[in-house]
Design brief:
This protein is α+β, with helices and mostly antiparallel strands and 101 residues long. It contains two helices and five strands; from the N terminus they run E-E-E-H-H-E-E.
């Protein structure tokens, strides 16, 4: 992989975590998600995140090679915290995970 020139944050399908789709100076897209990392042998390395960003990546690579300014890198709102079920006595109550970032 060449030098990374652009990165997109993308949400997982369940919006539980965030991955990054990376574009390098050779025009190669990669992703940090399990589908991309653990693709079957002999299959092209891709995932839905890479496919979603392909058209945008073509334009960004064109701008990069022409020496034009690249668009600001996007940000993604943090995934909503998922309620957890916690056993209390004979019943279940909802508890929100308190994670310090």
């Amino acid at each position: 992989m060449g030098r990374v020139i652009y990165a997109w944050p993308v949400a997982s399908s369940r919006r539980v975590t965030t991955y990054e789709v990376l574009l390098d100076d050779a025009g190669t897209l990669s992703c940090e998600c399990p589908a991309f990392i653990f693709c079957k042998a002999g299959q092209p390395r891709t995932c839905r995140h890479v496919r979603e960003k392909h058209a945008e990546a073509v334009e960004i690579l064109r701008r990069f090679k022409a020496g034009l300014a690249l668009p600001p890198k996007p940000t993604l709102a943090p995934a909503p915290r998922m309620p957890l079920k916690k056993a209390v006595g004979d019943g279940l109550v909802d508890a929100i995970a308190a994670v310090e970032l």
